[in-house]
Structure formats: structure tokens, C-alpha cells
Amino acid sequence: MVSSSVILRNIGSVWLGFAVQLAITLYLTPILISKLGPEGYGIWILIQSLTGYYGLIDMGLRAGVTQTVTKRIASGDMSTLVNYIGGVLPHLAKASALILIAGIFIGYTLSNTLDVRRALRDILFPMVFVQVVGIGFTLLSFPFASVLVGTQRYDIAEGLAVVTRLISLAGTLIVLTYTNNLFYLALTHLGVNVFDQFARCIIAVKLIPELTGIRLKSNRSELRELYRVGGWNFVVSISQQILQRFNTLLAAYLFSVSNLVPFSLAGSLAEHSGKITTLAARVLFPTFSHLSQNEQASHTQRLFQIASRISLTVSLIAITVGLIWFEPFMNLWLKNVNQKEDVIASAKPLFLAFGLINVLNSIRNVGWQLIMGNDRVEFMGKTMMLESIMAIVLSLVLGIGIGVIGLVLGNLMAICISTFWICLPTFSKMINVSNASNLQAVFLRPIAYSIAIGVGLLSWSRFVTNPENWLELLTFCAFPTIVVLIIAMPILLTKAERAIVSSRLFRLLKPT
Q1: Rounded Cα distance, 509 and 505, in Å
Q2: DSSP classification of residue 212
């Protein structure tokens, strides 16, 4: 088992990378909207959203590569690792070529069908082409990037990601200083991406010098391993991408591209708040796997329920606090954006819908680690595929019927059905408790806690005027929120947990 210090280092590293990414997004988004305009920014978001669809071509191979590379590093036999990478690289090159062909087709289609002004339409094809070149290079270098995961060096991986994000930020600001041409922005991102992947290859060789002995050779046994591990990962991957990306494409074609601005802003805010629980949940996989192998059912039950309760609490607090302080935050964040009032008014209900999706996913993120730890990825793949089909149908019907908000509500309804009728009963069965008992243990205290937080903050918000700067937002909104969160904390804890916390606080405060 990995030591607790390594786990904590890895969690800290991914959270640091996430914090930097969030800060850059919050800083850069209003600048992009202001410089590019609503239509130009909508095109930029649309092109970025296509990245996930190109990834479908790899058929889950990248996830399979990561899992196999990690397993072979753990075995200590570097010769099998070298043979594996040498055997899969030719196949990954073919997948990269397919992505390039798909990108040419998509670029041509968008440039001839999307209803945008001529200047934007003329650069759509070269933008897409530049993007797919970067994606193909990333796919080729992925076995080397997987080495950083296999050696548990998330600190190096996230440190490099922080550096490249800062370089990308600087490059973007320089381009926007001289021009608002989206093609030059795409070229900048390509250069940063190539640098990032090349650096990961060099670091991988430094960590495992035996990788210098890689020889490209098609190996059927290695390809069978690649497809065996990647099969259900493909099903999971395609389902996730449909759920995450389909609505962006649908919104672009059913409605004006300008509608993507509030849609993207609300989705981005909800996505970043959801990543707090997603990143933390991933570290539970090896623990669930170990508990499963040692048949420690009681420990599995306790871990699942505590982790789910914490994850649900964080997601509920994110949506509660976010809704209460939505207007003050957005007014400051988008202060230089034209027609910001319309954008904020449209984004708030979208944020609520995206936030409710995060609430359900916060429970499922823990459950998926339980599923994978018990080697039941097939269930995960089938469930997510069914969910994505329901989401497409419901999003189309509701989107046509009630507008952009209907696209998100379609996803929400599909995830709700899947969570309460399929996932939670299965999770409960796996930890040997009734579904009703499990729901009570996981949902009751987080819901009561979030209601108390909402009542407290709503009462306080009536006495707060709109902050005129970030310092006032921190003083009159953020700090009181933290105080209310702490005061209401006993509602969240069980009697035994309150006793433990009180005992530790007493020992901490007791004079020596």
C-alpha cells in the first residue's frame, strides 16, 4: 500500500494544480469575453469543447495505457514496461492519424455550417486543424506521461502543469495585446502543449532510464492487453464526453452562439466547484481495492458513508453559497464586460441546474471508486451509457421546448434517474446495508447543515450592500460565510464525531 505521506502529497499536488487553474480561469475569462466579444468567445468555447470528442477515437486506450503502465512499474520489471510502450506506440500513432482526419472533417463541416460572421468562419478550419495536431501529439506522448502517475510523482506532474498554465496565460495575454485573432490564440496553445508533453517525456526517461531502450515493434500480446484494459474504459469515456460536451454543441446549433457565454460561465463555475470532490475521491480507489481484497466489509461501509457524506456536504455548500453570493461575485468578475446584467441573469438558473448535477455526482464519484475497487467497471460503463442516452433524448426535448436551460435540465433528470434508481441501490448492496439506511446515513446531516447555512447567510445578506471591490467581497461575504460554516458544524457531525472533535480541541487548547 502507498504510505499516507505519499497520498497526502499527491492530494496536495492535485489541489494546488486545481487552485492555479481556477485562479487563471477566473482571471482570464472576463478578459477573453471583453477582447473577443460574445460571438468570438462562443466560438473559442465551442472549439475547446470539441477536444473531448477527438478523445473518443482513442477508444479508452489512454486510460488503459495509464493502468497498465502503473501495474508494470509496480511489478518492478522494467523490461516488460519497455516492451509494452514499444508495442503500443505504433498503434497510438494510428489513433493520432485518425484524430487528424476527424479534425479535418469537423473543421470543414463547422466552417460551412455554423452561423457566424465571415471573419470567424474563415479561421474555423485552421483553428480546428491546429487543435487536432496538439491532441495527436498528446496521444503519442501519453505512455511517457503515464510514468509520472505510475511512479506516484503527482508533485512533478502538477508542478509542470502549473508552469505550463502560467506560460499559456502569459502567451494568451501577449496575443490579446496585439490582436483578437483566434487563430493566433490556437497557435499559442499548441506551442505550450508541445512543450508540456515533451517535458513529460524527458522527465519520464529521467525517472526510469530503461525507457531509452524502447524499440517500436507491433506486439500482438501487448495490443491484446491494451484492448482488454481499454474496452470498458472506452464505454465510460464516451459516456462522460457525451454528458459533458453534447449540450455545448447542441446550444451552438439550436440557439445563437452568443448564448454559449452564460452557458459556459455557469458550467465553468459549477465544474470547478465540483472538481474539489472529484479530485479527492480519486485517491479512494486503492483503499477500496485493498479493503475488497482483504474482505473488510465493515471498514468499506464506514469509508463509503463518511466519504460520501463529506463529498455531498461540500457540493451542497458550494451551490448554497454560490447562489447567495452569485450576483456580487459576478458583478465584480465581469465588471468590464458589456451587457453583463443580461449575462448574469441568464447564468444564475444555469448555475443552479449545473450545481444540482454536481450534488448527485459527488455521491457517485465515491461510489465509482468503490465499483472500480471491486473490479466492476462493466457496471459503471453500462450505467453511464444508459444515462448518456437518456440525457441526449431529454436534453433535445427540453432544449427545444424551453430553451438553453432545458439542455441542462435534461442532463439533470437523466443523472437523477440513474443515481436513485440504479447507482445508490447498487452501492448500498455492495456495502451490505439497506438502501434506506444508506440514504439516511449519507444525506440527512449534509442536507440539514446546508439548510442551516442557507438560512444564516440569507439573513446576513439582507444587511450587505453590493461590494464595490474584491476586498469588500471578502470582508462582507467570504469571512461571514466561513463563520457561519464553523458555527453550524455540529449539525453535520454525529454524537461520536462531536465527542472526538471536542476532545482533540480540548487537548490542543489545554495549557502545557
Answers
A1: 6
A2: G
